[in-house]
Design brief:
about 375 residues; 15 helices; alpha/beta; Rossmann fold; five-stranded antiparallel sheet; binds S-adenosylmethionine
């Protein structure tokens, strides 16, 4: 998208160099041309990647089961579900449809808030919800910006699937034993990278707090937006849970698994590349989520860790096999559902973090040890 590229070049010329996070912010979230603000088909067969809700509705049904359990644990009071970054609304639709069908008392006691910045996606969510006859008063739409959320404090659950990985990241690397930040500049040959001093925000917000130690030549990403978001979430959560599903790992796991290269990748038409400066606005740019960062930020903001596990564990513990048994089992369905929990599919790379606030020692089915499952 030439127009967006030109706008980024203009910004770089004005400032000399910009942190990579600013490049990523423009490429993904420029109000008109950013990847996540356009009408582009992003997810699914004709898009750039698949997400769990687009694989099979069983995913949403199991999340609905989880939410109903949280509602019971919290004493069956009025419960608000806040979904961040709902894209076209598949997850929201599967959850509401399942609650309506399987948990009628819960259905009468919950409200769903969608927080979605893409105006085209919001229209598609409305159409999808109309198709399952969800009444207007069940769902409302709100916004999230650096000033926080546009709704009052809630009791319930903040839910997100693949939201955090889509937030802009700063990039750091160790050069001659000194930690440097990667900036983006431009000349006649195109975009190029400059290593320079780490921005004060990154230094204060992350390095000093979490004391990361990298070896010579190693690269890593710092997601300041994730920590900011979680602080705002905790402010708005009077009582309840935060359920975050995304790909990533603990800090240790990320560096063990991904070595020195960092985890930043681009997705374009179901292929992965590291050409970050190609096709701005037309390809996704994403980094693995550092769940240790979310756990630590959460703790200092008043959120306790309920549990952290792999998506495979979580879905098996919630009963994905039993549900599959009771579903129309054509081979295509079996393979799709298997992909959700198979270690070589989405099962191991995706993780589930649950945090809670003002709930006494909650025991959730999805976090129970797998040896307790009757196979
Ligand atoms: C990778 S997509 C996740 C899609 C969806 N959750 C799924 O599982 O298919 C990230 C979503 O977050 C949304 N998003 C990013 N920043 C946002 C913000 N500040 N407020 C609301 N939505 C945001 C994007 O528009 C996009 O729909």
């Amino acid at each position: 998208m030439e127009l967006l590229r030109d706008l980024i070049i203009k910004e770089v010329h004005k400032k000399g160099k910009i942190p990579f996070a600013e490049f990523m912010q423009m490429a993904l979230y420029h109000p008109k041309y950013g990847y996540y603000n356009s009408d582009k088909e992003r997810v699914g067969r004709f898009g750039d990647y698949y997400t769990s809700p687009t694989v099979h509705r069983i995913f949403g049904e199991l999340i609905a089961k989880q939410l109903e359990e949280m509602w019971r644990i919290m004493g069956k009071e009025t419960f608000t579900i806040v979904e961040m970054g709902a894209n076209k609304g598949w997850l929201c639709c599967d959850i509401i449809h399942s609650i309506k069908k399987e948990y009628p008392v819960f259905y009468d006691n919950f409200h769903y808030i969608i927080v979605e910045s893409n105006p085209y996606a919001r229209e598609k969510q409305k159409l999808l919800l109309e198709s399952i006859h969800v009444t207007d008063e069940k769902v409302s739409w709100h916004t999230y910006s650096e000033d926080g959320f546009s709704f009052d404090r809630i009791r319930g659950c903040f839910l997100s699937n693949e939201f955090v990985d889509a937030l802009p990241v700063h990039r750091l690397k160790v050069k001659n034993k000194v930690l440097k930040e990667i900036y983006v500049s431009y000349n006649d040959s195109g975009f190029f990278e400059i290593d320079d001093e780490v921005s004060p925000d990154v230094s204060k917000g992350y390095i000093e707090t979490f004391q990361i130690h990298l070896s010579e030549g190693w690269e890593c990403e710092v997601n300041l937006g994730a920590a900011e978001w979680l602080k705002h979430v905790s402010e708005k959560l009077r009582k309840g849970f935060v359920l975050t599903i995304d790909y990533g790992d603990t800090t240790d796991g990320l560096y063990r698994e991904n070595g020195s290269d960092g985890t930043l990748r681009c997705y374009y038409k179901h292929t992965v590349n590291r050409d970050y400066y190609e096709r701005p606005g037309e390809q996704d740019i994403t980094a693995h989520v550092d769940f240790t960062n979310l756990m630590n930020t959460g703790r200092s903001a008043g959120l306790e860790v309920t549990g952290f596990t792999k998506q495979s564990h979580y879905l098996l513990a919630l009963g994905i096999l039993e549900r599959l048994n009771n579903t129309n089992k054509d081979i295509e369905t079996i393979l799709k559902v298997k992909n959700l929990f198979h270690p070589e599919g989405m099962g191991d790379v995706f993780k589930v973090l649950i945090q809670h606030k003002n709930v006494e020692n909650p025991q959730l089915t999805g976090l129970r040890p797998l040896h307790s499952l009757a196979m």
